[in-house]
Write a structure and sequence with these properties.
The protein is built from 17 helices and 19 strands. The protein is of the alpha/beta class. Strands 1, 2, 10, 11, 12, 13 and 19 form a seven-stranded mixed β-sheet that branches. Strands 8-7-15-16-17-14-18 form a seven-stranded mixed β-sheet, with helices on both faces. A three-stranded antiparallel β-sheet has the order 5-9-6. α1 packs parallel to α11, α4 packs antiparallel against α5 and α5 packs across α9. The two termini are 16 Å apart. The protein binds flavin-adenine dinucleotide.
Length: 501
């Protein structure tokens, strides 16, 4: 006899989405979480009257037909959150892209956005607008196809089960094999480097991709994110986590904190339980299904003991791109210092003298002015992050360098927010080591897909694993990075299980 229908290892957005949905549908569910709170990277902490997001701070997927819209409708809480209590509100502009000589606001409304392009890139404007119109056409097509029937049902995610999408996908793949850099497709640019930086910064912001390594469908979906709406959550990231956790518990699910899954127990080639450590005690819990929200590298290195299965996970792990290691600085500041024209979310180069590279990009988020719960009156929270490759991050002793790196980050921010250092109330930092401890991700914190030709990861890793009855959710599987995408992976895994009940 099993103790649970489903045990979920980890309470990141992926795990929480599966678990809450499965409990709502009547299954007996337990989440095992090693931290003392839920959410993983979608979390916040409060100190000195401020509530800082620790990682995810820009949100999407709340528009009609999108993932959280669908999920909240399932839980009958959509009107409360989006309308009655206005917990979730659209942010305009969704993103601000900052280049040495340009500041471009990406509004959800395309005509308003095109006005920005006209002002900032007059000589390339015509081509650029054409490029966005083409990109939007593809995005609309994919969006329409995925939304037909029910957006999240598994059958919509595979080209061979969706003939129209397969046709589109094949045509584009053939085309891209000839011409990989999509910017070339749009024609001749007067200032090609500026345009490339402008597009690449958007792709990096949402998916850590560049034009040279993203297929046209993937690119069009990423560039379409602000068009579908960027949102702020009153109270920060942990409120989103709290909403799902509340639904889990309301429908009879359980979550146990400070509990680490140490082994996935197998019976033949099937998962049937989890060995869980809580302090000094270890217990074996049986379940019909296991969902892992922990990294493939953890499954391979410690959770699966059988050598043959281990090797299969090792192979999967190798398919995923090398991870990036984030360093974040969280600041409580006087809102007087924030320039009037600055958006809530911005992306820029750390050092204008250095070339464009992943580690030279700065992500900045400011808590929304309308969210008085995030900071004392007249103050705001800022989260500033950059990402390093593991070999770069590994050379730094973060405990020794924490203070210097924090000061260096504040210096970078001076480019965007002059005099900021004089208006800081409090400063905290999260090093790559901290991120590793809190997520248990060993091989880099953010790992994107390496599959060039998979639009939106159609050919990328799915939720199924080499072990029967063990599914994988989170940002290492389709459809990839970000809270909204991770929630989708959670829905897909839940649906796979529900098919059997
Ligand atoms: C610095 C940074 C900024 C980001 N900004 C944004 C943003 O603005 N917008 C956005 O949409 N996305 C953003 N992302 C990406 C987004 O946060 C992630 O893609 C998403 O939150 C990942 O969710 P997940 O479910 O995969 O897992 P995680 O958040 O990693 O959660 C996994 C959970 O599993 C637990 N766990 C792991 N192993 C075990 C075990 N053996 N036993 C028990 N528990 C275990 C961990 O403690 C953790 O709580 C950002 C990421 C980073 C790092």
């Amino acid at each position: 006899m099993s103790d649970y229908d489903v045990i979920v290892i980890g309470s990141g957005i992926g795990g929480l989405t599966s678990a809450s949905l499965l409990s709502k549908r009547g299954l007996k569910v337990l989440i095992v979480e090693q931290n003392s709170t839920a959410g993983g990277l979608c979390n916040s902490f409060s100190k000195n009257g401020y509530t800082f997001d620790i990682a995810a701070s820009i949100f999407w997927g709340f528009g009609h037909g999108e993932v959280f819209h669908w999920l909240f409708s399932e839980f009958n809480i959509l009107n409360d959150l989006l309308e009655r209590e206005s917990v979730i509100r659209k942010i305009e502009p969704g993103l601000q892209v900052i280049l040495p000589n340009h500041r471009i606001n990406i509004y959800s409304e395309r005509n308003r956005f095109y006005e920005e392009l006209k002002r900032e890139f007059p000589s390339d404007m015509e081509n650029l607008i054409k490029f966005y119109q083409e990109s939007d056409k593809i995005e609309d097509e994919i969006y329409y196809l995925l939304n037909k029937d029910h957006f999240y049902s598994v059958k919509n995610h595979y080209p061979h089960e969706n003939k129209r999408l397969k046709k589109l996908y094949t045509a584009i793949s053939i085309f891209l094999k000839r011409k990989k850099d999509i910017l070339q497709i749009a024609g001749r640019w007067v200032n090609p480097l500026e345009i490339k930086y402008f597009i690449d910064l958007q792709l990096t912001y949402f998916m850590h991709k560049k034009t040279s390594d993203a297929s046209l469908p993937l690119l069009s979906i990423i560039l379409g994110i602000p068009k579908r709406g960027i949102y702020g959550i009153k109270g920060g990231a942990r409120v989103l986590t709290g909403i799902l956790e509340k639904q889990l518990i309301k429908h009879g699910g359980k979550i146990t904190y400070n509990s680490t899954a140490e082994e996935i127990i197998l019976k033949g080639s099937k998962a049937c339980g989890v060995k869980v450590r809580q302090g000094n005690s270890v217990s074996e819990l049986k379940a019909d299904w296991i969902i892992s929200n922990t990294a493939f590298s953890n499954i391979e290195s410690s959770l699966i003991k059988k050598k043959r299965k281990k090797n299969q996970f090792l192979k999967i792990n190798k398919k995923i791109e090398n991870g990036l290691m984030p360093f974040s600085v969280l600041l409580g500041v006087d809102e007087k210092v924030i320039p009037e024209l600055m958006g809530e979310h911005a992306i820029m180069l750390r050092d204008y003298e250095l070339p464009f590279s992943d580690s030279n990009i700065l992500f900045i988020s400011v808590s929304p002015g309308w969210d008085e719960t995030r900071a004392p009156h007249g103050k705001r929270c800022i989260t500033a992050t950059y990402f390093l490759f593991p070999d770069e991050a590994g050379k730094i002793n973060w405990e020794i360098e924490r203070e210097n790196k924090t000061k260096e980050m504040i210096d970078h921010l001076e480019q965007l927010i002059p005099f900021i250092s004089e208006f800081i109330d409090c400063a905290y930092s999260i090093t790559p080591d901290d991120y590793q401890r809190s997520t248990m991700r060993r091989e880099g914190i953010l790992r994107g897909f390496s599959n060039l030709s998979g639009p939106y990861g159609f050919n990328s890793l799915s939720f199924k694993t080499p072990v029967r009855k063990l599914l994988k959710v989170g940002d290492e599987v389709f459809p990839g990075l970000g809270v909204a995408h991770t929630a989708k992976s959670g829905i897909r895994a839940a649906e796979e299980i529900l098919k059997r009940y």
